[in-house]
Here is the input.
Amino acid sequence: MWKQIKMLRRHGYTIESRHGLGYRLTSQTDLPVPWELTKVLRTSFVGKQVVFRETTDSTQSLAISLASKPGSHGAVVIAEQQKSGRGRQKRKWLSPKGGVWLSVVLKPAIPTARITLLPFVAALAVCDAIRTTGIDARLKWPNDVMVSGKKVAGILLDISAEADQVNYAVVGIGINANVDSATMSARFDGIKATSISDELGRNTNRLDLTRSLLENLERYYLEMEQHGPGAIIQKWKKNSDMLGHKVAVTQNSKTIQGVAVDVNDDGSLLLRTDHGDIDVVSGDISVRY
Ligand code: BT5
Here is the structure.
C-alpha cells in the first residue's frame, strides 16, 4: 500500500495520511499520465497508445523505436523530463520537469514530398492548445511557437521515407508549460524563451494542455490528409505575424536578409531580397518588427 501511495505522489497526486484514519486523495495530478489522458481524450487514433516516462533521454528516440512496430500509428510518448532533449540539427532542447515533452508516431498516407507539412500541422495544434490558456501564441517560420517574441514551444520532425512512400514520421513537440524561463535562459546563453506559467503568472494544467494539443493535432492532420496543403498553410499564415516583415534567415553560417513575403504550399518561405525572390526551405529566422 505504502509503495502505491508513494508512486501516486510521485505522479503528482496529493494524498494526506492521518494516523489511525488512513489516506485521503486531496488533489488530482495535472500530469498527462496515460490512465488520466486516455480517460479524457476524444480522438480516433492519436493517443490510443500512450507511453509515459518520468525521465527519459528523449521521447523522440523512444517513439522512433516504437514506430517500426505494427499498430503504432498515433502512438504518443510523453516524459516528465528529458535528459537529452533534442532540437533540430543536433541542437539541445532543455526539458526540465514542468514542461510538456512528447512525440507522436504517424504513418501518413501522403506523398513523401508533402511530409514537410507535418511541422505546420503540429505548430497549428500547439498554437490552439496554448491559446486555450488565454495566451496569444503566434507562429514563426519554420517551426517555432512564440509569445511576445519569445519561444514558448518547438517542433521537431524525424522521418523514415522512400521516394514514393513514407514509412513513418515522428513529430516531437516541446512546450514550456510550467517551467522557469529565466533559469532556462541563464543555462542557454542568448535564448529568448518564455513559458506559459511565466506569461500567466500561475501554473497551467498540463493534462488539459496535452489533451487539447493531441485533439487539435489529429484534427489538422486529418485535414491535411483529406484536403492537401492549401488549407493548412492558409491557417498557419493567419496565426503568424511575421509575413511582411524584414527577416534575417540563417542557414549553416550564412545569413540572407529580405522581407518574408509568403509561405508556399510546400512549406518553404518566399523571401524578397535585393537580388530577387528566393524560396527558403530551411533555416532559422530572426524577425525585425
Ligand atoms: C526545436 O528545435 O525547436 C525543436 C524542439 C523539439 C523538442 C521536443 S520535446 C519532445 C521531443 N523529444 C526531443 O528530444 N525533442 C522533441 P530548434 O528550432 O533547433 O531549437 C533549438 C534551440 O532552441 C536551442 O539551440 C536553444 O537555443 C533553444 N532552446 C533550447 N531549449 C529550449 C526551450 N525549452 N525553450 C525555448 N528555447 C529552447
Remarks:
- Residues 58-60, 82, 85-88, 91-95, 101-103, 151, 154-156, 172-174, 176, 184, 188, 191, 193 surround biotinyl-5-AMP (CB under 6 Å).
- Helices lie at 2-10, 34-40, 59-67, 118-131, 181-187, 196-200, 206-227, 229-238.
- The longest helix spans residues 206-227.
- The CA atoms of residues 64 and 170 lie 7 Å apart.
